[in-house]
């Protein structure tokens, strides 16, 4: 007599409420990391997310796991903003402008220190997310350049450095109180990227390779 082989069990999908809780945790963590830095107590993140401490630890066993999820989620949102810019028709430079302002709103510059101090900057998930963002930004810039709207002597590295620096609050300034200046200064920078260029830039365009080595 042969024993019937049990049918393989299907992998269970997370419940909708569990997915919502996870998203609330990541959103709350992103906000609080920007406001207070990566050492904010996890119970404070749980309180802002409206979940219990156990729910946080069930989704993220330690702080590094949560930081990694936040950083990668910001990169994913930035990539989607670039995709939306590429999907636009008409004014290529206008699409680039809207992407830059959307990227600044993600406050990735405030999260950058956590990549080196808390989260492994060479983590495969982060590497994949970074490469995706860099490739999409290059496409957005190439389209504006091909339309004759973007000066030819700027590179993807120039843009990424500017967004990071201009969306980071000056030393001694509270992070959120500086928000009102960010988009003003970004627009000043963007106006300087328009073609025809009114001046010659010193040095050469910053490449992604140079940016990674810095």
UniProtKB/TrEMBL annotation:
The keyword DNA-binding applies. It comes from the Bacteria. The lineage of its organism: Bacteria, Bacillati, Actinomycetota, Actinomycetes, Kitasatosporales. Keywords: DNA-binding, Transcription, Transcription regulation. The keyword Transcription regulation applies. Residues 41-60 bind DNA. Residues 19-78 form the HTH tetR-type domain. This is TetR/AcrR family transcriptional regulator. InterPro entries: Homeodomain-like_sf, HTH-type_TetR-like_transc_reg, HTH_TetR, Tet_transcr_reg_TetR-rel_C_sf, TetR_SbtR-like_C. Signal peptide: none annotated.
């Amino acid at each position: 007599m042969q024993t019937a082989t049990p049918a393989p069990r299907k992998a269970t999908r997370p419940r909708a409420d569990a997915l919502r809780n996870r998203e609330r945790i990541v959103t709350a963590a992103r906000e609080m990391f920007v406001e207070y830095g990566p050492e904010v107590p996890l119970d404070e993140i749980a309180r802002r997310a409206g979940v219990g401490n156990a729910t946080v630890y069930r989704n993220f066993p330690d702080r590094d796991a949560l930081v990694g999820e936040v950083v990668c989620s910001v990169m994913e949102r930035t990539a989607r903003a670039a995709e939306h810019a590429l999907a636009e028709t008409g004014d290529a430079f206008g699409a680039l402008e809207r992407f830059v302002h959307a990227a600044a709103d993600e406050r990735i510059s405030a999260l950058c220190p956590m990549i080196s101090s808390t989260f492994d900057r060479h983590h495969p998930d982060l590497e994949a997310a970074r490469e995706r963002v860099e490739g999409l930004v290059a496409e957005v810039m190439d389209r504006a350049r091909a339309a004759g709207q973007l000066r030819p002597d700027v590179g993807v590295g120039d843009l990424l450095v500017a967004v990071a620096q201009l969306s980071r609050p000056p030393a001694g300034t509270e992070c959120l109180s500086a928000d009102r200046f960010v988009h003003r200064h970004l627009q000043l920078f963007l106006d300087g990227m328009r073609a025809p260029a009114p001046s010659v830039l010193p040095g050469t365009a910053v490449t992604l390779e140079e940016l990674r080595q810095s």
